[in-house]
């Protein structure tokens, strides 16, 4: 079994030494266990790579929560249905390694997390929480996410795991899985980050044409207008939702869903009297185009 030296924290400039690259489950587990033996806590940031500033903010948050930070980079085939964008999902392992230099202690970049003979049988499902929103149009997505996150928790054995609330439903499902299945992991949710023009940061944004990118700004514009209206007392979720659908459609987006849901259980809300999340998925560029998600938390 590989032995890892885990002592040594951040350098004086606040930067960490070059991260250890771990390719196998065994190496990953040994590294994590060595950290624990040294009395250090481990914070995990799971990603699918092609890292942007949103991911890096999760990594910085992890560094404030755990003594040692590990970032996993793995495009999880288990959460893509046939015909989805697995093959064209952007990848840049070299760029990811460069972006993570100085920010984390280890990078887990496995070749594969599932056995190659198609024999994977066990999936985690989150019953009600996985059905609405992205679960409606991507029926296997959340079982794939929950399963790979459970695998990562079992391999990395982190004390803390940091997720972005851009994938609000994913964050809720992971929190629930941890509670229901007694994973000894603290799940931290970080607010969504936006580009300067308001577009929610996403690895898929690079695939947008200039025209579609301009159109896609209608999503954050419409969400912001809606949040202002809710803060000024608007309660009629049905009308507000329709205004947002119209704004996105007029900008050239094919709306997959726009929903006003209770922030705790994702149930659709007709009258806004509690904390809600307005969640959006829309595709730009027609069939085979780019599917974007966004959301905004709103309180009456
Ligand atoms: O949010 C993501 O990038 C992925 O869904 C995750 C959590 C890394 C699982 O593959």
From TrEMBL:
EC number: 6.3.2.1
Keyword Heme: no
Pathway noted in the entry: Cofactor biosynthesis; (R)-pantothenate biosynthesis; (R)-pantothenate from (R)-pantoate and beta-alanine: step 1/1
Ranges of Basic and acidic residues composition bias in the record: 12-22
Annotated stretches, region: Disordered: 1-22
Keywords on record: ATP-binding, Ligase, Nucleotide-binding, Pantothenate biosynthesis
GO cellular component: cytosol
Family: Belongs to the pantothenate synthetase family.
Record-given protein name: Pantoate--beta-alanine ligase
